[in-house]
Structure formats: C-alpha cells, structure tokens
Write a structure and sequence with these properties.
heterodimer, A: about 425 residues, 9-stranded mixed beta sheet, 16 helices, 9 strands, about 30% helix, globular, B: about 100 residues, alpha+beta, two-stranded antiparallel ribbon, 3 helices, 6 strands
Chain lengths: ~425, ~100
C-alpha cells in the first residue's frame, strides 16, 4: 500500500529529544482507554466518561490490537477509561496482554480491587496498578471524585500492600486544593510501599468545566515546581509538568510534547488520538478498525504533521523556550489558545493576556461526551471546597484572576493553528 | 568493569531505534534509552563475551572511547538492566541512564 504523505527526510541522528520530536516507528507510551463506562463521575474527567459506548471494541478486536502491540514491540500500555475493570472481559484481556509480552499499567479508582484481585495482580511482574487519588484527605478527594472514593482507594491500597505488590502507583491530579498536601501524599505512598505520581490538571473533557476553579494558582505552580525539583526522580510525573521547567532547572523526563510523536491514545471505540488529553476531532488520527493501529501510527497525516518541525510562534522569542517548548498542546487547544503560542499556564505569565482575549463562546466545544446523564451514586459535591462560578470567574479586568472573560463554552473553533 | 563478565538481564527487552534502542525492564517496569547504535551492539555482545573489554573490542569501540562506554554500561548495571554473568560481590556505582515513564 502507498500513502500520499511521506514522512519527512530526517537529519542525521541528533540529540535524543530531537529524535523524539521526529517521532518513532512505534509509541514509547501508549494509553488505551478500554471503556467510557465508569461507576464514578469525577468533575475533572479528561475523557468525559460515564456511559459505555455501544460501539466499544469487542473482546476479539481488543485481542487483535494486543497482537499488534506485540508485533510493534510496544513494551507496555497504560490502560484506563472510564473505569477499565468495569469491562466484563477486563481480566481476560489483562491475562492475554501478559501472555503476549505486553506489560500493562492500569488506572483504577480501586472500587473493584478486592483482596483476591490484589493477590492475582501482585503475582506477575507484567502488571502495574495505578490508584487515582486527588486528595490526601477524604474531604479534598471526595469533593472532586465523589463520596466514598477516598475510602475505596485506601481499601484497594491496603489490599495491594497486603498482597505484596511493590511500587504500585498512586496517581494524583494536582489542583488548587491539594498542592498543600504534597508531603501528605508522599507520606501515604511511603506508608503503602507505593510510588507517587503527580500529573497536571488539563482542561480536557469535563476538566474544561472546572479548570478555572481547580487549576493551581500561579504561586502554587512555583510551590509545585520546587517540590518536584526537591524530590527528583523519586516522584513520577508522566512528563506532565515540562511547562514548569521554565522556572529554572529542567524537571526529570523528556520535557517535550510527545503527542503523535512518542505518545498516543486509543479510545474505547478504536479511535486513535494524538495524546490522552486531546480527545477531540482535531486530534483524531484514524481508527484501528479501518487501518489497523500500525498504519494509523505511521501514516496518519495528523501524526506526520505533528512530527514535522514546529515553529513555536511567539514563544521562540522567549528565553525559556528551550526549557518549556511552548507547553502543552491540549491545554492550549481546550482553552481556545493558538497552538503556536504560550501555554495558558505559562510560568512567565505569557499565557494570561491571550487567555483573557479568548472571546466567550470561542473555546472548542467537545466532540463527544459520555458523561452520565442522570444522578450517580457517589456523585461529587464540590460546593464545600470550590467557589461557585460566579465568584471564581470575574468579568472585570481589575479582578484578581487574569482569566477574565474565560467563562462560557460554546460553538467551537473548527481547526487549530499548528504553526 | 572492563575485565568483568556482564550480560543483559533476562527481564529486559530491547527495541531497535534509529538512535540506538529502547530498553524496557519488565521486572522494574523502567524504560531506558541506549543512546547510540554502538552501545546497543556492545550490550547485545556482552552475554557471549568473557569480559566487557571483549564486547567493546568486538563492537569496534576504540581505546579512546572505552571510558565513556564503561560509564554508560555502569549506569545500565546500576539500574539493573545489566547483570553479572556470575554474581559478583562488588556492585558498580554510576549515574543511571535516562529513563522515563509515561503519562
């Protein structure tokens, strides 16, 4: 088969980071959201999960995809959702992946990690577990994730520890309300023999609705950066915070946007997106049902474009550009900013003015939404911790938050600038 | 290290890349980068070589580059990607190779 778009001719092998910007023949890090079904309704869900999509990949299709991962030597996949353990064939697929030398790290809210499951998980090196926890106290966590979710996570971690599971992950999305708890999270991880993983709150999925209220304040960004520098490689970040490297010394990791280059997402219906935080038609590369994953990865025009040299736009004039590389594509896109400009949370403050200038109603509207439509059993009740929209989204430029005029979703931009 | 016998750990897989190779250790779940094709060649030769020096020579590493390669190999040994062919009491100490975990 031929394709009309050929990969660019590359220069001689250079720095590793340059090599990654041109993309690899297979992703280093692949996220596979197994289902949009979820027993929770977290306010910041990046995949707007809740209801199962009827077009979800069948067991046979999922196994064929694992075969393809094995052929491409994708060493491990990050499985998420939704809540992946809800899929009735979840454990079967997990076993299948392990038998085919594809390691699995899966993210879960912990509700279904029983003592017996924990023992099974601890029995193989090929499986890693990541428990989501967004507050070091039930008060902070449950306001975002829902009633009872803190206790469920603690129960799951107790089972994993008792089963002898080493170094499982505790995954925390950093928010305004938990930045002061970083030491407490570390203490929890140490107590369970787990490893702490901190990631950035992105304005993706339902996260777009709460980003303004939950994102760390500017002084908290500095606090987070200093904490990360102090803890080095002992704390994982999934390369989340490379935009903070502009504060000074680079954080551990690749410090580049890997979207479509070394990272991608396969969603529950087989759609391949450039990264886990970019579930939107703009970043849709193709579907595995049409082409197979290998061809989507290697040949999709979107991915080839992402692997071509990027201009960096106005950011290239900034002294910190080599550190932050202009920040996160998804964060820019979902806040309505041009992709070749500064990150909305640029630590130099260069995102503030463009963000303030985004007219109400011009942020991209979601391409899809699997959120629950009715009440959910453990629905989060965020009112106690989060200010209401009225107070947190000022409409006058003299108000404390620079994100003036940020409020209001609406009809979206069709395409994005990509330099 | 030059006179010692080392090999790639049985729990590690290599994926060839233009720049060298990705190395993933299923036991520690750590991903590392072998940053040159020559380093990959050396690592692949280790298991069949009586000493590290033999592997370096076999891969065409000249004397002036030996120290740099030994540093890289020591880093890989520290992170567990390389193991002694016969367990040795002295563990090497060096800077670990670059590693990454995913989002």
């Amino acid at each position: 088969m031929t394709t009309t778009i050929q990969p660019l001719e590359r220069p001689k092998v250079g720095r590793l980071v340059d090599e990654f910007e041109y993309g690899l023949d297979a992703p280093i890090c692949l996220t596979w959201e197994l289902t949009y079904a979820c027993n929770l309704a977290c306010v910041h869900c990046l995949s707007s999960s809740g209801r199962r999509d009827p077009r979800e990949l069948t067991t046979a299709e999922a196994k064929a995809l694992i075969d393809e991962f094995e052929r491409m030597q994708i060493f491990y996949v990050n499985i998420g959702g939704g809540e992946p353990t809800i899929r009735p064939d979840f454990w079967e697929l997990l076993d299948y992946a392990v038998e085919h030398h594809v390691g699995v790290k899966f993210s879960t809210n912990g509700f279904r990690i029983t003592k017996e499951r924990a023992e099974r998980l601890a029995a193989t090196d090929y499986v890693d577990v990541q428990i989501s926890l967004d507050g070091a106290t039930a008060e902070v966590n449950d306001a975002v994730r829902g009633a009872g979710t803190y206790d469920a996570a603690m129960r799951a971690m107790t089972h994993l520890q008792a089963a002898g599971m080493q170094d499982f992950k505790i995954s925390v999305v950093c928010t305004r309300h938990n930045i002061d708890q970083l030491d407490d999270f570390k203490a929890i991880a140490d107590r369970f023999g787990a490893q702490l993983r901190l990631t950035r709150l992105r304005p993706s999925g339902r996260g777009a609705d709460v980003w303004g209220e939950l994102r760390p304040l500017p002084e908290q960004q500095r606090q987070l950066y200093d904490w990360l520098v102090a803890h080095g490689e002992g704390v994982l970040t999934g390369d989340s915070f490379f935009h903070l490297s502009a504060f000074g010394e680079a954080l551990p990791g690749l410090n580049l946007c890997g979207a479509g280059r070394v990272v991608c997402l396969v969603d529950p219906v087989g759609d391949v997106y450039a990264c886990p935080f970019a579930i939107h038609d703009t970043f849709l590369a193709g579907n595995i049902r049409d082409l197979g994953f290998d061809r989507v990865w290697k040949e999709s025009p979107l991915f080839l474009e992402l692997r071509s040299p990027q201009t960096g736009g106005a950011c290239t004039k900034c002294s910190a550009y080599d550190s932050c590389r202009g920040g996160c594509m998804a964060a820019k896109f979902f806040t309505g900013l041009p992709l070749d400009g500064p990150d909305p949370e640029c630590v130099k403050g260069n995102g503030d003015i463009p963000l303030a200038g985004v007219a109400a109603g011009t942020r991209p509207s979601p391409s899809q939404d699997h959120s629950h439509t009715g009440p959910v059993h453990n629905q989060p009740i965020p009112l106690t911790l989060m200010p209401t929209r009225l107070t947190s989204r000022p409409d006058r430029s003299c108000d404390e938050d620079p994100l003036v005029g940020f409020a209001g979703a609406g009809a979206g931009r069709e395409t994005a600038d990509r330099g | 290290m030059l006179t010692e016998a080392w090999q790639l750990s049985g729990s590690v897989s290599l994926r060839p890349e233009r720049f060298g190779a990705l190395a993933y250790d299923f036991r520690t779940r750590r991903l590392s980068f072998l940053k040159t094709p020559t380093l990959v060649d050396v690592v692949r030769r280790l298991g069949d070589s009586p000493t590290v020096l033999d592997a370096l020579t076999g891969a065409g590493v000249d004397a002036s580059q030996q120290a740099a390669y030994v540093r890289a190999l020591s880093g890989l040994a520290t992170s567990g990607l390389l193991v002694p062919q016969h367990p040795s009491p002295s563990a090497p100490v060096s800077v670990p190779a670059a590693s990454q975990e995913g989002p």
